[in-house]
Amino acid sequence: MKVTRREFLRLAGAFTASACIVSPAIGEVETGRIPILLYNDVSDFFNDSHTVSPSIFAAQLEWLYNNGFRVIPLRKISNPPAGVRLAVITFDYGYASFMDYAFPLLKEYGFCATVNVVGGLVGKYIREGRNSRPLLSWDEYRHLLKSGLVDIGCQTNALHLLKDKGVSNVSQEVLRHDLMTFNKTLQKETRTSTDILAWPHGFYGAQSIDVAKNEGFRYLQTTNKAVFNKSGNLLEIPRKTINNRHNLVAFRTEVAS
């Protein structure tokens, strides 16, 4: 009997997550409440707060699918479809593992995702101690954009390296120049621009928001942990970080609460 990729990953995910894929369904649809999920690295190599294993990620997507969720692009939260369960999937940093593990599975389900890119590190590595995590290349981003399932967001061009206070520790002019550089590079490499931004390390302030707005960014993602409401503020979009600690019981709680 032929087993499809989705079936294989579903079964592997069910075993690894130590929970049944068809877990208890959540309640009735709450109109206007949209969980926005934040992933980073999909990998078996690391086991930290930035990582979810491919099998657990597969189980989580299967749970969303089996519970009737429609995963929509981030931009649609301003005018979401009515009467269906909705979710949004985002990825920060743009790790190369997205192409290896996340994207093939997203295609199986027809789920959309936003990848927030650190412009100055595209095609390079993020070093963590003695280990390095490779990042997607511009050629890979061009391929992903052609699929119609992936949007590119900005995670600044170079300010990701400021780990203490992120963009809140730089002048408005420095931030303005950085965001401008990102979109110029994105336009050159992909012939597209973006109005989606994710704040590095979750740090931002009122002045940061003003600069981003003036540079044409409309959807500003935070790491504030909450569910987005239809009438919510697009300039402070909350997201829920998902990692290896989220077996299907914990994942269900994050999505429903």
Pick out its properties:
single chain; alpha/beta; TIM Barrel; 6-stranded parallel β-sheet; 7 helices; 14 strands; globular
Task: Write a structural description.
There is one protein chain. The protein is built from seven helices and 14 strands. With 257 residues, the chain is α/β, with parallel strands linked by helices. The protein has a single domain (5-20, 35-256), classed as TIM Barrel (Alpha-Beta Barrel), CATH 3.20.20.370. The strands form five sheets. Strands 2, 5, 6, 7, 10 and 14 form a six-stranded parallel sheet that branches. Strand 8 and strand 9 form a beta hairpin. Helix 1 (5-17) crosses helix 2 (54-66). It is globular. 40% of the residues are buried. Residues 13-24 have low confidence and may be disordered.
User: What's the helical proportion of residues?
Assistant: 25-40%
Strand content: 15-25%
> Which runs of at least 5 residues are low in confidence (pLDDT < 50)?
13-24
Overall average pLDDT: 87
Architecture, according to CATH?
Alpha-Beta Barrel
Query: End-to-end distance, in Å?
Result: 40 Å
CATH topology: TIM Barrel
List the helices and strands and how they pair.
Layout: H1 5-17, E1 33-34, E2 36-39, E3 41-42, E4 51-52, H2 54-66, E5 69-71, E6 85-93, H3 97-109, E7 113-117, E8 125-128, E9 131-134, H4 138-146, E10 150-154, H5 172-190, E11 196-198, H6 206-214, E12 219-221, E13 228-229, E14 240-241, H7 248-256
Parallel strand pairs: 2-6, 2-14, 3-4, 5-6, 6-7, 7-10, 11-12
Antiparallel strand pairs: 1-13, 8-9
Helix pairs in contact: 1-2, 2-3, 5-6
